[in-house]
Design brief:
The complex is a heterodimer of chains A (about 650) and B (about 675). Chain A is of the alpha+beta class and about 650 residues long. In chain A, about 40% of the residues lie in helices and about 15% in strands. Chain B has about 675 residues and is of the alpha+beta class. Chain B has helices at about 10-20, 65-85, 130-140, 170-175, 200-205, 220-235, 240-250, 265, 300-310, 325-330, 395-410, 420-430, 530-565, 570-600, 610-640, 645-670, and strands at about 90-95, 100-110, 115, 120-125, 190, 255, 285-290, 295-300, 315, 320, 350, 360-365, 370-375, 380-385, 435-440, 455-460, 470, 485, 490-495, 500-505, 510-515, 525. The chains are: A alpha+beta (about 650), B alpha+beta (about 675).
Chain lengths: ~650, ~675
């Protein structure tokens, strides 16, 4: 997968542990085109019956699994406290032709697991053992990093507003031997705080790991035991577990995972470092029980899970960073559509992709999990389309008829510019990846906006039109986008599809990929050219019996610069290879590649010294009798080495430790 | 899938390719003309455990009700159209003599946001038009005015030359086995460009007959146009008039016509055609010059009438367009070329599935993509048409999946299965491996060059697990299908139901075909003389060598000037050196010209007369340059070899001579050197 695609993933995925849902943000020709997002109005509203929804799903999923190269899926729909439909599609194991069985087959639900952890925390809140607004230090036996004046509270952790940067190290393991306890993970992984708590949504697996650890500390049980005793057992979820590696009893029924259904199975059972954030394995049938419990909890239907007032607190406490755009409740993302109150959570591991949605007013729940990423990340589109079209079929509403505001042109200019996601790292190499993920919000002359990562089902960027001050709605669609304005400037943008997870922050000019990337590319190109041309020129000179007339010092400098150019390029290529490899298989970042990080860091320091050498060489060249071409090129080389060194340090490609 | 073939390469070939399908007889045996029944290749009873479908589950039949069908299609179509970037579609299902469901999805006109109305919105049905032409032919056969087995020259006022002494018959034409090469020039032109009438079109160029009649399925729009012309001559009416009076009117198809451009009263109903919905660019109405092969415009509701008439063996209400025996003859007379796989019946493709008899036809213009299926024993018909090609040929993928899943959902049944012992399977897989070309191909023009590219060239290879794959046969995800041998020389899609079958003569595979396209085209081993296995690398390598020589000319001059070195060669050596550089540069230049010309012609960017003039120039230049350069190359090599130059100079001279000979060879066998402009 291309690096840029991996990066793009981040921006679009519903909520991922991993970072691999692809969507191309690099499409250069974006035009304000009235793309097709919705169907002409349906004639009548079909009733949500088993027969209707099964036929509808058969039509939808069989083709999409085939087209998207996805091995298998499970779909569960609950209604009025009962399972309306649970059905497997495709294979749990392609090689052995084992079909998906909704009762037996276990899927990794990824971050949907967070709902269980959040529910457990709410149980402890209900019992008075944990307070939502208490600083987390109260419950911990270690300190999170310092930063800002405000402490991080339990509520911040639940709503992804702890303000921590994103770390990748030990997020995913393949080797049970290297895999430690939750306590080890939370104490060893100490992300830097980059936002004041409570203000900026920035998806946080670490936060959930800390919540899991708080559960352990407060309850006195291990996290896995707690979930077994207080969630799974009361709900009768007999084929679900957070335990890793997977207990023997479940192994035979675990679905294999696939990048593409036509390819080989993912080589290992994914061991999630921050387990409470995503280690759950569960059957479709068990997920139905969890959905029913939450749907009925407010009416006291599932007193075994949460008391009605706790359920109401969990479901209805909303944090919206960019109102009126969807925000998040305590643990659930708000995904309202067609006037329906909908709570949702997505979940992605590297190969499993899931979503759970609760239609709170209608008493309907929808859970879907896929065991493959599919062709060009097909699963992402399938999952969101399934949810949207299910909603539009059974709970239809017209696209709101709103006029475009007269301020559209003015406001579009205000928000136009370069942005980056809040879900990012500032002090690790991941900042370099973030650089590639920057995108530009474009203002069209008519005041509409185009935001490259926000695309319709056909892959074309959506077009946005201002319908309330600083609130935009997609043309011919229902999603909204809003800007938080402070002092006449954009603080950040939020979008219905992801604003619980991330917002988009303006990029300061000093960090703009708009000039950093070209500078890096031109510098690297001039070094590469030097590496290629000098030996050729040397050969020609030798054949023609000519020599460069240089002093010994100049000759030394010239040779050293050659070595420096080589070091810089090896450094860059090394990072590209390491990042590509790690983002293609996150378990490479379980610590075993730390040695490679150190090697690259060392090369970075050599490059720093090398920049000095390049400057020295330029100085010597200007002293001597060389022609203007040699002089100019020596300056180009010096500039390139200095630029690359500066970029390497700025993007944390040179550090002293293996923190990432 | 093969429909991809159209994708990507422009409109004429596109449309050409896309226009339709048929079936044939086992090598050399002409059609068992009179054989009236198709012994449906009922598979040997397969144990249930072996019956697998794509989703791994044995499906139970569902009653085909309007409610179930509509919910199923509502699940299928909207997202499939959205991801496929297809603007709009109409789907029609008829059952037991009436319409069960007709529904529009998406837009007939994206800009105007005009939804598809199944009752009135017109779609181009492409090659499904042929079914009307074939019906017309059979009406005249029924009246004794035409004989399926007579030489077509009996009905013509110009001559189709014999091949191997054999004429073309209407039966050959209805089974796509007249053996004509593909004919792409001016197949479809945009409305507004000069329009050649049918008579002029078919007389302008009779494509070369490259196969003996009745033996090799090779889809032919030209031959269909010929059949339409015969209908017109024998009936004394224009083709349009004949169809209106004898088919459209009796069936009450008021939103249908073959006329081009559209009659005034129908224009407002015409769906716009698109390459991709998201580009929002409505394309011009397509004028199909081979009109009887593909000029129909029709609404979904009208196609329901046509399907019902055929399902009822010619009867529609009070009207009757065919006698039952004629309809029966048309639906069941199959021509077997390859065992097991789908064949042509008279005008329809066989598309049997799950043990059910199904006949069908596909239709593609550049923008509109349609399929029509008749489950003749079940009284059910399915028609789908889309008004965009879509992303990566999505429309083709969608219609195929709609049919297969519809058939599997409502009419499940057993699929051929079996085992071949692993050694034999390995041996057979080895035998079928290699490079093939499709039977439906341009052969005597510069378009022969297409043989170097997919899917005109396709390769068959053995997978690690012993299955075979055909590079042109891909599943909906774009992954080559794996085929497992289920009986000697018959393979089945491991994840599906389609079969692939090979014909072996004297221990060698002489042709193979696979379901979905087997009725109307087959694959044959590529002859060594033009095999891409050596031609492509030799030509590419040769051109790179020539390019280096051409580029070295100015570069070495600059280097010499920079270092103040004198040019070292004198006399004959210098003359040869100069000429080889001129020859290399000229050849590279001519290939660049071809590289510009072919896409321009294929994309319809040139008017017909400009294209012809341009083609003349490039072909003549090729003749002069390729012959001249080859001579210079050989001469230069002899000069250099006899001189005292270093070994690498000698080697290079030989390389250039070989490169120039390869170029000449390519020029000759791929008809870059040619003296007419038909293609």
């Amino acid at each position: 997968m291309r690096l840029s695609k991996l990066v793009a993933a981040l921006l679009c995925s519903v909520s991922s542990l991993s970072v691999s849902l692809a969507a191309d943000v690099n499409d250069p020709d974006l035009k304000a085109d009235d793309t097709l997002q919705s169907e002409p109005p349906a004639t009548s509203t079909p009733e949500l019956t088993r027969a209707d929804v099964e036929a509808w799903l058969d039509g939808f999923l069989k083709y999409e699994l085939e087209r998207g190269d996805i091995a298998g899926a499970v779909v569960v729909i609950v209604k009025d406290g009962e399972v309306l439909l649970q059905k497997g599609y495709g294979y749990a194991d392609v090689e052995n032709r084992r079909p998906v069985d909704p009762e037996r087959t276990l899927f990794r639900v990824g971050s949907v697991a967070k709902l269980f952890t959040d529910t457990a925390v709410m149980q402890l809140v209900e019992q008075g053992k944990v307070k939502l607004d208490e600083p987390i230090g109260t419950y911990l036996d270690f300190e999170v990093r310092e930063g800002f004046d405000k402490p991080v509270t339990v509520r911040n952790l639940i709503t992804h507003t702890g303000g921590f940067e994103e770390l990748l190290r030990e997020l995913m393991h393949s080797d049970p031997e290297r895999f430690g306890s939750l306590e080890d993970y939370v104490k060893r992984t100490r992300p830097v705080r980059i936002f004041p708590p409570g203000e900026v949504p920035s998806y946080c697996n670490y936060c959930l790991a800390v919540l899991g650890y708080i559960i352990e500390r407060v309850s006195g049980e291990t996290f896995d035991d707690y979930m077994d005793r207080h969630i799974f057992r009361p709900l009768g979820m007999q084929r679900s577990t957070f335990r890793q590696p997977l207990p023997e009893a479940f192994a035979a029924d675990m679905s294999k995972g696939y990048e593409r259904g036509s390819g080989p199975a993912w080589p290992y059972f994914e061991l999630v470092g921050p387990a409470p954030a995503g280690s759950l394995s569960a059957t479709g049938a068990d997920m139905a029980r969890f959905m029913i419990a939450h749907l009925s909890a407010e009416d006291g239907g599932a007193a075994t899970l949460l008391q009605p007032q706790t359920a109401r607190l969990m479901h209805n406490t909303l944090f919206r960073a960019t109102p009126p755009v969807n925000g998040m409740a305590l643990g659930f993302f708000e995904a309202n559509r067609n006037g329906q109150r909908i709570l949702e959570h997505g979940g992605d591991t590297q190969v499993f992709h899931s979503q759970l949605a609760l239609f709170m007013d209608a008493g309907v729940g929808l859970f879907v999990s896929f065991n493959s990423t599919g062709r060009e990340g097909a699963v992402g589109g399938i999952r969101s389309a399934l949810f949207e079209q299910f909603t539009d079929r059974y709970f239809p509403a017209p696209i709101p008829d709103e006029p475009t505001l007269p301020t559209a042109v003015e406001h579009s200019r205000l928000v136009a510019g370069r942005y980056q996601t809040s879900r990012r790292a500032e002090t690790t190499f991941y900042a370099a990846v973030g650089l590639l993920g920057q995108f530009t919000v474009n203002a069209n002359p008519d005041g509409t906006l185009v935001i490259p990562p926000l695309r319709g089902l056909n892959g074309q960027p959506k077009v946005w039109r201002e319908v309330a001050p600083f609130v935009w709605r997609e043309v011919s669609g229902k999603e909204r986008l809003a800007a938080k304005i402070e002092n006449g400037r954009v603080r950040f943008l939020g979008h219905d599809g992801s604003s619980g997870i991330q917002v988009f922050l303006p990029v300061p000019a000093s960090r703009s990929a708009g000039w950093i990337m070209p500078l890096a590319l031109v510098s690297a190109a001039s070094l590469l050219l030097t590496l290629l041309v000098w030996p050729v020129a040397g050969l020609i000179r030798r054949r023609r019996g000519m020599v460069l007339e240089l002093t010994r010092q100049q000759l030394l400098a010239r040779r050293l610069v050659y070595a420096v150019a080589l070091v810089h390029l090896v450094f860059l290529v090394g990072w590209v290879v390491l990042i590509q490899a790690g983002l293609s298989d996150l378990s490479l970042f379980d610590g075993r590649a730390d040695g490679w990080f150190h090697v690259l860091h060392l090369l970075g320091f050599i490059g720093l010294v090398g920049a000095g050498v390049a400057i020295w060489n330029a100085w010597l060249t200007w002293q001597g009798p060389r022609g203007w071409r040699a002089r100019a090129w020596s300056l180009v080389l010096a500039t390139s080495c200095v630029a690359l060194t500066w970029i390497a340090f700025t993007l944390n490609l040179v550090r002293l430790d293996a923190y990432y | 899938m093969l429909e991809r073939y159209h994708e990507g390469f422009h409109m004429r070939a596109h449309a050409a390719t896309l226009l339709a399908m048929l079936l044939l007889s086992r090598g050399g045996l002409a059609a068992d003309a009179g054989e009236s029944t198709p012994p449906i290749s009922e598979p040997p009873p397969a144990p249930d455990t072996h019956v697998t479908s794509a989703d791994g589950q044995v499906s139970e039949p569902r009653p085909l009700t309007r409610e179930d069908l509509e919910a199923w299609l509502d699940g299928f179509m909207p997202y499939a159209l959205a991801t496929g970037d297809v603007a709009g579609a109409v789907v029609v299902v008829v059952k037991d003599g009436s319409t069960l469901l007709q529904k529009g999805y998406g837009y007939a006109d994206v800009q105007a946001r005009k939804p598809v109305d199944p009752e009135t919105t017109l779609f181009r049905t492409g090659s499904i038009s042929k079914l009307t032409t074939w019906t017309a032919v059979m009406q005249l056969v029924e009246q004794g005015k035409l004989d399926l087995d007579a030489d077509v020259n009996e009905y013509l006022d110009f001559e189709i030359p014999p091949r191997d002494g054999k004429p073309v018959t209407l039966r050959n034409i209805l089974t796509h086995t007249p053996g004509f090469e593909e004919c792409l020039k001016d197949l479809i032109v945009p409305e507004g460009t000069p329009f050649t009438p049918l008579e002029e079109y078919i007389k302008e160029w009779v494509p070369t007959r490259i196969f003996p009649p009745g033996e090799v399925p090779a889809y032919s729009n030209y031959a269909t146009a010929l059949a339409g012309y015969i209908v017109s001559r024998v009936s004394g009416l224009s083709f349009d008039e004949y169809v209106e009076q004898n088919i459209l009117a009796p069936l009450g198809m008021e939103h249908s016509t073959f006329r081009q451009p559209l009659p005034e009263g129908l224009r407002e109903f015409m769906a716009k055609g698109y390459a991709r919905a998201s580009d929002g660019k409505a394309r011009p109405f397509e004028m199909v010059l081979a009109a009887p092969a593909g000029s129909q415009s029709a609404s979904g509701a009208d196609m329901a009438r046509f399907m019902i008439a055929h399902l009822q063996k010619g009867a529609f209400g009070e009207a009757r367009i065919l006698q039952p025996e004629t309809a029966e003859q048309m639906h069941t007379t199959a021509l077997t070329v390859l065992p097991r796989v789908h064949r042509m019946v008279l005008g329809f493709y066989e598309q049997n599935r799950n043990g059910r008899r199904i006949i069908s036809h596909a239709g593609d213009t550049a923008w509109f993509h349609s399929d029509l299926y008749l489950f003749i024993d079940d009284g059910v018909g399915l028609f789908i048409s889309m008004n965009s090609a879509g992303k990566e040929g999505a429309a083709g993928t969608i219609r195929k999946a709609v049919f297969e899943q519809f058939a599997d959902r409502y009419f499940p049944g057993p699929t051929l299965d079996g085992e071949v012992d692993p050694q034999t399977a390995a041996e057979h897989a080895r035998m079928i491996s290699g490079l093939y070309q499709i039977s439906r191909r341009p052969q005597t023009s510069f378009l022969r060059l297409l043989a170097l590219s997919e899917p005109f060239k396709t390769s068959v290879y053995v997978n690690d697990d012993g299955t075979i794959s055909v590079s042109a046969a891909k599943n909906a995800a774009g992954v080559p299908i794996k085929w497992r041998e289920v009986e000697p020389f018959v393979w089945r899609d491991v994840d599906g139901k389609n079969l692939l079958s090979a014909q072996v003569v004297d221990g060698r595979v002489v042709r193979f075909g696979f379901e979905w396209v087997s009725p109307f085209m087959v694959f044959e081993p590529i002859p060594a003389a033009i095999s891409p296995a050596w031609v492509s690398p030799a030509l590419l390598g040769g051109l790179i060598a020539l390019l280096f020589t051409a580029l070295a000319w100015p570069v070495s001059a600059l280097v010499r000037r920079h270092y103040g070195v004198a040019y070292a060669l004198t006399g004959r050596d210098a003359v040869a050196h100069r000429w080889i550089r001129i020859a290399s540069t000229a050849v590279v230049a001519v290939f660049i010209l071809w590289g510009v010309t072919v896409p321009l012609i294929m994309s319809d960017s040139l008017s017909s007369s400009t294209a012809d003039a341009w083609l003349w120039i490039v072909q003549l230049l090729s003749a002069i340059v390729f012959f001249g350069a080859a001579a210079i190359g050989v001469w230069n090599a002899t000069v250099v070899l006899r001189s005292a130059r270093k070994w690498y100079a000698k080697t290079w001279a030989v390389v250039l001579a070989l490169a120039l000979l390869v170029v000449l060879w390519v020029g000759l066998v791929f008809h870059l050197i040619a003296f007419d402009v038909n293609y």
